[in-house]
Design brief:
Largest sheet: 4 strands, antiparallel
Structural class: alpha+beta
Number of domains: 3
Distance between the termini: 125 Å
Number of helices: 13
Order of helices and strands: HHEHHEHEHHEHHHHHEEH
Length: about 375
């Protein structure tokens, strides 16, 4: 009986329990490790299937990579066309493969392609390369043509010929006017080798028509009873004269007020246009310049010039239809940044001119 008690005490000896715990811990660690290996293995198989998908490549698909697109942007385009199966994985693939900078343009790649093959196609460059042309506000049509001619495969002369032929027309262009002066929209245009001068011109005109319509040029009852084309001429004058945004509405008001009062506009920009765009040093217009014989010389000819003189941007188009309230009839450049001062009377205008000159501003 005492021997049995000894055996029971030995079996329940607390000093014996720690010897069992390490074995249990090792088993638990082994189980976790096995699960981790399984998870990692499963993840790798999933990633591998994304990088090199099973099955043959599918039909050909086209994507257009825009100028300035990031790798993430391109990955989304590829995923949308099912060329790659996962945009995020493709982004990491490119990054861990050493990164790349892909050119803008059109690419044709098979759907369900291995990511390595996709990168090879992108590295080769686009099948159709895009040219880019930026046309800022305030240019004449001849100046736009010069920029078009800077594109190697395009001709500025051909562009100008088409723009003055009447073959491409704006919805706001009167029947008796063939020139598209002032009817092109300033923007950055991207175009491929299939587009020629006429195609590019048509896009510029279509965008202008769309923006002008959105602003309200096809609505009835325009300010001062102007026609849409006359209002576009006003917008071109605002674009040419205003150097800071806050002046646009006020200059528009001066033009409207002078037209309503039957005063000559006496706008320097029209004289410069009448002189073929020739500017004197400092941009000054001299008294003898105002005597040039031209229908665009608003110092001599009453009313608006026969056509716009530059291409107006959206802000100038809006200002022409929404002149700021006021009784101003004059303005003069008053600050070195081009800000104007506005006056209701000739005497006030003369005072502002003298003040500008005294402060070293060339009005």
């Amino acid at each position: 009986m005492s021997e049995t008690l000894f055996d029971q005490e030995h079996d329940d000896d607390p000093w014996d329990r720690p010897r069992r715990r390490p074995r249990r811990l090792l088993v638990a660690v082994g189980v976790v490790a096995a699960l981790l290996v399984a998870v990692l293995g499963g993840t790798w198989l999933w990633v591998k299937a994304k990088i090199d998908p099973p099955g043959p490549p599918g039909e050909q698909a086209s994507i257009v990579v825009p100028e300035g697109a990031t790798t993430a942007d391109i990955a989304e385009l590829l995923a949308e066309e099912a060329i790659v199966s996962d945009a995020s994985v493709f982004g990491y693939y490119v990054r861990f493969s050493g990164g790349a900078s892909f050119q803008a343009g059109e690419y044709t790649i098979a759907r369900n392609s291995a990511m390595g093959e996709v990168v090879e196609v992108l590295d080769q460059g686009p099948q159709i390369a895009f040219d880019q042309l930026t046309v800022p506000e305030g240019l004449t049509i001849e100046e736009v043509a010069e920029r078009v001619g800077s594109v190697e495969r395009l001709s500025g002369e051909r562009f100008l010929e088409v723009a003055q032929s009447g073959s491409v027309r704006s919805k706001f262009q009167p029947d008796d006017v063939d020139s598209l002066e002032g009817l092109l929209f300033p923007d950055t245009y991207r175009f491929d080798e299939t587009e020629d001068e006429a195609d590019l011109l048509a896009r510029m005109v279509a965008l202008f028509d769309s923006v002008a319509t959105d602003v309200g040029y096809d609505e009835k009852g325009l300010p001062g009873g102007l026609t849409p084309y006359e209002a576009i001429i006003v917008a071109s004058l605002v674009e040419s004269e205003a150097k800071v945004p806050q002046d646009r509405g006020k200059i528009s008001r001066v033009i409207h007020n002078r037209l309503e009062d039957g005063m000559r506009l006496q706008i320097d920009a029209t004289v410069i246009y009448a002189r073929g765009g020739q500017r004197r040093e400092g941009g000054q217009v001299l008294n003898r310049d105002t005597e040039v014989d031209s229908p665009y010389n608003t110092y001599q000819v009453p009313g608006l010039p026969p056509t716009p003189i530059t291409i107006p941007g959206r802000a100038a188009l809006e200002a022409a239809l929404n002149p700021e309230p006021g009784d101003w009839l004059f303005y003069v450049k008053y600050e070195t940044d081009g800000t104007h001062a506005f006056a209701e009377t000739g005497a006030e205008h003369s005072r502002l001119v003298a003040e500008a000159k005294a402060r070293g501003v060339n009005p």
